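job 3f2a | input accepted
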Amino acid sequence: MNLEERILASVDTLELDEQAIVQSLNAPFSDQIARSDSKGPLQSCRGSFLVELLKAALSDEGRIAIRIPNIRLVSELKATSLKIEKTVSLPNLVPEFPVCFDQCAFGQLELSEPSCIPS
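job 3f2a | predicted structure (119 res):
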């Protein structure tokens, strides 16, 4: 089962931006870093999608980290008891709703606020 299929097992449908986010994770890690440095356009996603994406992507044995830059959360992100020994990087995250990582453990969690990202 690929990444998108694993997410769709828990989330009914994917919005266009969410599909693009999933596809971007198939790019080489160096391309993901370059995208975060570009301060490109924000991609909107739901909190429930992001939680399921983290679970699915980080359960992949071959993946050592996940980097999802330039996203706007359009609903509450409520993750509880996630235990991930890998690095999660969400540079330029714009939350429009509360973000909660209650009782979660990450190898490393990197969050940075946006600076001059166009809406």
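job 3f2a | The beta strands are 43-45, 65-67, 71-73, 77-80, 83-90, 94-95, 99-102, 105-111.
job 3f2a | closed
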